[in-house]
Amino acid sequence: MTLPNFTPSEPPLPKRLTVLVFAITLGLGCVSSPAQTQQPPKETLKDSIRDRFFPAPQPVTIPTLEPPPASYTFPTKQTLTYTVDWRVFTAAVASFQIEQQGTTQKITASVDTVGGVTMLFPVIDRFQSSLDTKSGCSAGFSKQTQEGRRKISSDLTYKDGKQTLVERNLVKGTSKTLSAPIPACVMDSLSGIFYVGSQPLTVGQNFRFPLADSMRTVTVTMKVEAKEEIKTPAGTFQTVRVQPTADEGVVKNRGKIWIWYTDDARHMPVQVRASLFWGTITARLQSYETK
Known about the structure:
single chain, globular, 291 residues, 4 helices
C-alpha cells in the first residue's frame, strides 16, 4: 500500500491521529478553552500599557447543562462501528458500545489504525465514560492510549465541584494527579455525542453546555445547521447536521467539525467529519446493532 507524501508544513502523523481520535469522540476534545482567566495586578507602567493595548480576555459565563428531555429514550444496548477515512484511504476503525444500567448510560469506545498506518504508526486507543440519563451529568472519562511507543492511562472524575485527573505513563512508570474546579454538572468528550443526540436538534436552534476535560471547562455551542441525506456503508439516512464550536482550541481558525444524526427519534450519529488545515478526516457508519 502506498502512503501519501507529506509536505513540511503538515503536522507529524501522531498529531493527525490524535485529532482523528477526538474527531470520533465528538471532536469536542478539539475545541476546549481555558477554565478561567486571572487578571494580573497592575503594578508597573509596563503592565498598564500592556493592559490598555492588549487587554486580558473577560471571564466567560459557563452555561448550565440541561437534562435530557423526558421524551427521549436512550438505547438499552447498542453497537456502532465506523470506518475512518483520511484523504484517499481508510486509516482506522472506530467502535462504540452503549449499554444502559438503570439510570446510567455506559459508553465504551475504541479506535484502531489499519493498513499502512498501523505499520507506520500504530494506534490502539480505548475510552470509557458514563452519564446519568435523568440529569445528563457525566461521572467522568477514562482512556488508555497506545500511540507508537507512547502508552498512557488516565482517569478523569467529576465529584463535589472538582475534576480530578490521574495520569500514568506506562512506559516510564510515572504518574501525576491534577485537579481543577468545575460546575456541579458537566459533560465529558465521549458521552457528549450521545447527550447531543438526546436534544431536539431543530434546524436553526443552537444550544450550549459545559464540557470538562484536561483541567479545563469549555462552553460548547452546538449549531444545528441543516437536514441532509447521507450515504454510508451502513445505508442511506435522512440526517440533521450539527457543528460543535468553541472560542479556542487546537482547531481554532484551522478547521471545523460536523456530526450527522439521523432525523428520527433515535438521533443516531452516522457520520463525523473533521476538516482541518492539513486535510479532512471522515468517520462513516459501517454497521450498527441495537437491542
